[in-house]
Amino acid sequence: MNTMHTDIPKTSTPQLSIVVPMYNEEENIKHFVKRVVQVVAPLELDYELLLVDDGSRDGTWLEIQTAAQLFKTVRGIRLARNFGHQSALLAGLRAAKGQAVISMDGDLQHPPEMIPELLKAWKDGARVVSTTRTYSKTTSAFKRFTSSLYYRIFSYLSEVPMKSGQSDFRLLDRSALEQLLSIRQSDIFLRGAVSWLNYPETTIPFVAADRLHGESKYPLSKMLRFARGGILAFSTKPLQIGIAMGLMTSVFSFAYLVYILVQHARGQTVEGWSSTLGLLSLLFGVLFIMLGIVGTYLGRIYIMLQQRPQYVLEDDDRLLRKNESDVQSEPQKAKSANS
Ligand code: UDP
Ligand code: MG
Q1: 231-265 pLDDT, tens per residue?
Q2: Using CB atoms within 10 A as the burial measure, which of 74, 239, 296, 325 is most buried?
């Protein structure tokens, strides 16, 4: 059944991989593939178009197989069920072999015609080429507003600056991709993670087209979950806000405890007031401090669990060699170095 092996391009390291998550996109695939091929074929480079079927329930996988038979540059991978856009994208990025890897949506909202521009910025030395989306006129004011608000809140809470309108339409150099993939976070938020890497970026604006066929797979509820996930994945600030509030409360409690003791000494209290409120203040003060301590450790554990690299390499001689001839002469160089 696996006819697709023969369609995998011969070279194991193509110059370019284009990774596209697809969820119930049966109507869009052939148009998408056609347009990508039209744009990329004239560039005469070695490339692969990697279509990731994110557990679609329609004919997406069949369409991918058909495309793979028609074009030897098309590869397909299929997830066992629907894992969501970010996970599908991640699966594709892991499977991609290219020296440069472009990720984009499969509904033609990200215009394939921009691929040469992204490639040019990469050849000019950019390791991350991002795009920012300006919405077309048909996009609702609500979507535009909430989107720009989100990026502001995200940047504030996570201390990872993220430009408004960032999308998952971008090019990553192999070296940046390797760093990105070394983050072992199961609920990874790719946009945030790429910003976190903080490579010098080239940013290209584009106007998002309308979806060719079908409906957005991101209804408001999913969008909110995605937004919340992005912030939680990157920030322990909500926890820190809790800690600050706890500390304030405990300071207040202890101050009040002093007041109670003074009042008690002056005999200006009713029976039982000092003991009740004094005990309450003391316990709440201690409790909030303990909660703060627990929160601090929890935050650290959370960040450590993500196994983000402790540092991000700016330069690695080995990874930077994009030039085909450099890559081929590698074993010889190694030999001469060893002798
Ligand atoms: N997608 C996916 N899995 C999902 C939802 C979406 O792989 O669970 C893909 C979808 O096929 C498309 C891309 O992710 O190629 C972006 O999705 P969509 O166009 O629905 O999002 P929007 O553009 O409305 O934000
Ligand atoms: Mg879309």
Answers
A1: 888 888 888 888 888 888 888 888 988 998 998 89
A2: 74
**Half-sphere exposure of residue 284, counting CA atoms within 13 Å on the CB side?**
18
Strand, coil or helix: 96: coil
List the shell of residues around ion ligand 2, using CB closer than 5 Å: 105, 107, 109, 211
The CB density around residue 6, as the number of other CB atoms within 10 Å, is 9
Element (H, E) at 42: none
3-state class of 236 per DSSP?
Answer: coil
Q: Which residues contact 85 (CB under 8 A, 6 or more apart)?
A: 21, 23, 54, 168, 217, 218
* Strands, E assignment, the chain: 16-22, 47-53, 74-78, 100-103, 128-135, 170-173, 201-208
pLDDT score, position 320? 52
The span from the CA of 170 to the CA of 160, in Å, is: 18
Angstrom distance (rounded) from CA 33 to CA 65: 12
Write down the domain spans for the chain.
16-235+310-338, 237-306
CA angle 320, 322, 325 (to 5 degrees): 120
> What is the CATH architecture assignment of 16-235+310-338?
Alpha-Beta Complex (3.90)
Q: Ligand 1 test: best mutation among 25, 27, 82, 107, most atoms within 8 Å of CB?
A: 107
Alpha carbon of 228 to ligand 1 centroid (Å): 18
- CB of 110 closer than 6 angstroms to any ligand 1 atom: no
Torsion of CA 258, 263, 266, 267, to 10 degrees: -130
Chain center to CA of 51? 18
Q: Is residue 13 predicted with pLDDT exceeding 90?
A: no
Q: Is the pLDDT of residue 54 over 90?
A: yes
Q: Are 30 and 38 in contact (CB under 8 A)?
A: no
**Under 8 Å between Cβ of 162 and 90:** no
Say yes or no: CB of residue 23 within 6 Å of ligand 1: yes
